[in-house]
Structure formats: C-alpha cells, structure tokens
Amino acid sequence: MQNIKTDYLIIGAGAAGMAFADTLLDQSDAHITIVDRRSQPGGHWNDAYSFVTLHQPSAFYGVNSTELGSRRKDDTGPNSGLYELASGAEINTYFDKVMQHRLLPSGRVSYYPMSNHVSHDAVNVDGDGQNICHIVSLLSGAKTTVTVRQKTVDATLFSPSVPATHTPKFAVADGARLLTPNALPQLWLQRSGQAIPQQFCVVGAGKTAMDAVIWLLRNGAAPDAISWVVPRDSWLINRLQTQPGVEFFNHSTGGEADKLAAFAEATSIDDAFLRMEATGQMLRIDTSRMPTMFHYATVSVGEVELLRSVTNVIRKGPVQAIEPDALVMAEGRVAMTSGTLYIDCTASAVDKQSIQSVFQGSRIALQLLRAPLVVQSAALTAFIEVHGGDDAHKNQLCTPVPFPKNLAGFARATQVSMMNQFAWSQDKALRQWMRESRLDGFGKMVAEVDKLDADKQAILARLRGNAMAAMANMPKLIGEQ
Ligand SMILES: Cc1cc2nc3c(=O)[nH]c(=O)nc-3n(C[C@H](O)[C@H](O)[C@H](O)COP(=O)(O)OP(=O)(O)OC[C@H]3O[C@@H](n4cnc5c(N)ncnc54)[C@H](O)[C@@H]3O)c2cc1C
After folding, report:
1. pTM for the complete prediction?
2. What architecture does CATH give domain 163-234+317-344?
3. Mean pLDDT to the nearest integer, 47-60
4. Quick one: fold of 2-160+353-419?
C-alpha cells in the first residue's frame, strides 16, 4: 500500500474541484491532491451529449486563472449576436489543459484519476489531528493512504445527474425505443439495423430537453414530427441579461436593477416573475401558461422561438411507462405513432443536496454561494479558506445558497446570494480579488464605470436602491410573512 502526504485532498475533479484547486494554488503554498472516479477532469461534462453547450457565456466559466474561449460573439444560429457558449468538447479539453498545463506542472498537485475516495467510514483523525483518507484505484484496486495535513474538500455536492448516467424513473416496454440525447448524432449509423425514425418524442422539460428539441429542428426534423412531454412549464433566464461585455451594460446591470425592482414591488412570487418577463429578464415558451418551475435554465430569444414551433406538447404529468404505441402518464394514456423514438431528458440536472456549513473543521463542503455561479462559488471558497480567519468568520462569508425547488426558491436563493455579496463587499482583500476575478463576469465592469457617465451611474444608483427594497420585500415573496 502506498502512503502519501498532502495539505488538501480534493474529492472530485469536476468544475467545482478544479476551480477550488486553481485558486488555492494561486493563494497558498499548499500541496493539493485531487481524486476522481473519472479518467479526465471536467466531471459530468465528460458524459454530456455532443451538442451540449454552457447556458452562460464562456467568458466567466471555468477556473479563475485561465480564460475559456476567446470572447468572440456567435455570428450564426439562435445565439447570434451573443457571446460564445463553450461546447462540452471544448469544456473537457479546457479542464484537461488546466490539469496538464497548469496544475500538474506546478509540482504542488497530485492527481488520481479512475480512483475512488473511500469516504467517511474509512476516514479517521489520527493522534496528530491529521485526517487519514484512502484512495482506491478502480482499475487495480490498489489502495493509497493519504495523510491530509489540512483539509479534505468535498467537491461532489453540486454534481448534477445527466442523461447518459442516470436511470429513468419510468418503465420501457419491449418494442418501445428510448435513447439518450447522446445517441442522436449517431442515428445515421443504424448499427441496430432499425429504420431511421421519422417521429420523435422528447421526454422532459429542462434545458437538456430544450437542447434535444433544438438539435432535432436544426438537423432537419419537421416541428410536427416532434412531440414534447412537458410535465411542468419553466421560467427561463433571457441570455441577453448575462452578457459580460460593456456594450450590454443596459441589459446586464440594468436588467439586474429591473429584476430587483420586480422583487421589491411584487405582491406575489408569480407577480415578480411576470414583472421580470415584462422587462425582459425572464422568458417562457408558452405565454398562455404560468410556469411553476425555475432552475436557472438560460436561453436566447432565438432558441425560444425555435422551441415554440413545436406545438404537440403533452402535458399530463410525468411519464410512468412507454409502450410501443402509447405513453402512460400520471394523468392518462396518450396514443403515440408506432416507431416513435423517445429521447430521455428526465435526468435532474440538479440533484438537491441538503445544506450544510461550508467550513467544518478538517472538512470543506463546497456549495453554491452565489446562484447560479458554481465555479465562482468554488474559487471564492478557496480564497476565503486561505484568507478568511477562523471557521466561524469564514462561514459568515459563505452561507450556502439553497437551490430553488419552486418559484419562491428563486427569491430565497437571490436573498442569500445578495447577503453573501454584501458580506464579501465589506472585506477589502476579498472585494479586490473579486473585482479582478474573471469568474465574476460583471464586477470589474461595474467597478470601472466612469463617474462622469451619467447614464450608467443612474443604472448603478437604481441597482443600489432596488437592492434594499428587494431585500425588504423578499420575506413576503418567499412566504415567510
Ligand atoms: C447541460 C448543463 C449545462 C450547464 N451549464 C452551466 C453553465 O452555463 N454555467 C454554470 O455555472 N453551470 C452550468 N451547469 C451546472 C454544472 O453542473 C456546474 O457548472 C458544474 O459543472 C458542476 O460541477 P461539479 O464539479 O460540482 O460536479 P461534477 O461535474 O459532477 O463533478 C464531481 C466529480 O466528483 C467525482 N466524484 C464523486 N464522488 C467521488 C468519490 N467518492 N471519489 C472520487 N471521485 C468522486 C465525480 O466522478 C465527478 O467527476 C450546467 C449543467 C448541465 C448539466
């Protein structure tokens, strides 16, 4: 059995673990060991369908030290005019490069791919107050004992479920054909000997389902060849509001001021979303329905227009079973054309974890600190780990943001994110670091607004004023009053 010593053991080389490691490397002299079951860094992105992209511009995703993409804007397609969105392949290449060209060459990082961290039951604290953990190679079973001088970092808590690795909750009868979106680009291959399908049914209503519908449409399927099972309608963030360039200031910062005005003035959470729709922050596909779901799915107006072209939308609750010529739904049976290809998009991109303290003595539990920015939250946690003082003070700066389970959850997540941001703004070193951090997206742009630019200053004043009023009205929208 091999024995190694390290300062920090990071469990998970997904986006969260990589963003934490990158900032920890910059801000300390610590030795870091990273363990992951997968063979490459990037976590779930390794299992994504080939046409996946980020929801948000590449400009503020990844690790702090290394730009993702080249800040160009798309010239074609439904994201035209907006900043580029990295594809899954780009993201995987990026994280591999960060590992191979930055983390490992530093001489302070060890990486154990295809290896399991054997968790709590095998972890104990020895007489010196050091953690003893075990890493087990998936391929050889070889065990490595790791003495952790500082902390173990759990970077697995925000791990999403994706189509290729999840198990659908509904039954699939013999004769019905269900694929994941990963298989769509290979339909031309026909290895199975089955005919190429002419009818498609996308099952699920989240961003993956939207990606699958758009892929079908952009690759030649007619809108009336597509059925779409939508158990719940969702509010969607208008990607226009997430653009990092100063030319979008009115949409990004002005949009944030409008969002806070909606939170400040709304009489109910539905009213808040309708106000945000009226000012362009939120979109919905079917404007005749009130959505009940919000998971930060971010889309462009062009994508929504494409999605609206599919009119055969099946709203009878979740699918319970797929039969060769019918869908068995919670609220009834729906006849389907025999030979329809079903596409499973029901993996919950966000597996809700219960909230826990981020700093727990010898353990750090990485969580969302500013919704929905997973990587910024992880990098910030590393900065606070190094510079934040004792655990009590660090936890004051890092209240975990509960991921929304319903519309009111958006108000709660915004409220906690804002409280964290206020706490960060009171800490000079942290404020300075955030201002320079590429993962913030907007901080530097806002900080650099010319004092004589009356229009932008007016937007900033509106943002500040609305923030106070929004905080005052949030408890009513959350249902706490
Ligand atoms: C389609 C899609 C689009 C998205 N777009 C965006 C976006 O635009 N912006 C954004 O901020 N977020 C986006 N997200 C959210 C995204 O999930 C996060 O950005 C981020 O990738 C989550 O990374 P993670 O490291 O938390 O989890 P993961 O990627 O799941 O990584 C966790 C890692 O931990 C490893 N692991 C778990 N347990 C163990 C163990 N015991 N031993 C060893 N290894 C272990 C796993 O193998 C895995 O590699 C998107 C998600 C999806 C599904």
Report:
1. 0.96
2. 3-Layer(bba) Sandwich (3.50)
3. 96
4. FAD/NAD(P)-binding domain (3.50.50)
